[in-house]
Amino acid sequence: MKHVFVVNPAAGNGAGLRDILPAIHKALTGFEEDYEIHRTMSEQETILYCRQKCAFEGRVRFYACGGDGTINNVLTGIVGHDNAELAIIPCGTGNDFVRNFTEKANFLTIEKSIHGSVMPIDVLKWQGGYALNMFNIGVDCDVVAEAAAMKSDKLKGTAAYLAAAFKVLRKGKTYRMAYTIEDGEEVESELMLAAIANGHFCGGGFKSCPEAKLDDGYMDVCVVRPVKGLKLPILLAKYRAGSHLSDRDADKYITYIHCKKFKLRALEPVRISVDGEVLDFTDTEFEILPGALKLVIPEGSQPV
């Protein structure tokens, strides 16, 4: 098997070069299998590189060493190739996907991924490509964008997302959208947010889709309508903890479903966060691709 370490030198404010490269060299000391280290140059270059490796190699294990964007680029390059596996070495700030597993620190130990097991998991697809973890539209996406703008040496990770959430929610912004579940009728509504998920977590640890499973063949969709007054901080706390579905007023504010297809159309300007990367959004159909990815689970970890 070929081992390919795809390193984003800009991830984690330079941690890709400062920390990960020495760790890779240490882990591979005396390693007898074929390997190489590739430093990424751009999104498209990373995708093309991974596709070419899949086309000309036998079994190949890619180690995505970077943040959510790097992971998504490698995913996009290898989806559809049965000979490819994805291991994740998180170097970003959010690292929400690895929260779906026990002992998430194991993902930072390269040897544990080298000797890890493979688990087939689902992948989310939309018109712009693929996602491993989650799409967030509306206030959720605004929080991601605001957190990125606020991050500094003193304010990063979960703290940055929490500060951004309070700042964004004070504005009381909502968005007019229309959505369709499977082949049902379109519903127009004023929404705070919509989360379309394969995993549980977004925004540095908000458990927005607590019932999600990585390998059940379904996406989880959480649609939240406007919440006002004192109910807002209460529901925000529950949304972070993943207990919002048990709130006594959940039916009033939240629609939560498991489905294979979900269409969303923006009736005013809004953005979408794709595994943490913020893009403009108009409309699209989301679908689930069951078992489309061979994910490497580090030794000592398992899905939560």
Architecture blueprint of SSEs:
Layout (H helix, E strand, L loop, with lengths): L1 E6 L3 H17 L7 E5 L3 H14 L3 E7 L1 H11 L5 E7 L19 H5 L2 E10 L2 E3 L2 E5 H12 L6 H14 L4 E7 L5 E5 L1 E5 L21 E6 L6 H11 L8 H4 E6 L1 E14 L2 E21 L7
Parallel strand pairs: 1-2, 1-3, 3-4
Antiparallel strand pairs: 5-6, 5-14, 7-10, 7-13, 8-9, 8-13, 10-11, 11-12, 13-14
Structural features:
304 residues, alpha+beta, Rossmann fold, Tumour Suppressor Smad4, ten-stranded antiparallel sheet, 14 strands, globular
Write the element-wise H/E pattern from the N-terminal end onward.
Answer: EHEHEHEHEEEHHEEEEHHEEE
Low-confidence stretches: none
Major beta sheet, specifics? 10 strands, antiparallel
- Named at the architecture level, the CATH assignment of the largest domain is Sandwich
Tally of contiguous helical segments: 8
**CATH topology of the largest domain, which one?**
Tumour Suppressor Smad4
Strand content: 35-45%
SS content category: alpha+beta
The Cα radius of gyration reads 19 Å
The helix fraction, in percent, is 25-40%
Mean pLDDT: 92
Distance between the termini: 28 Å
Query: Quick one: how many beta strands?
Result: 14
Compute the number of structural domains. 2
What is the top-level CATH class of the largest domain? Mainly Beta
Any idea what the shape is? globular
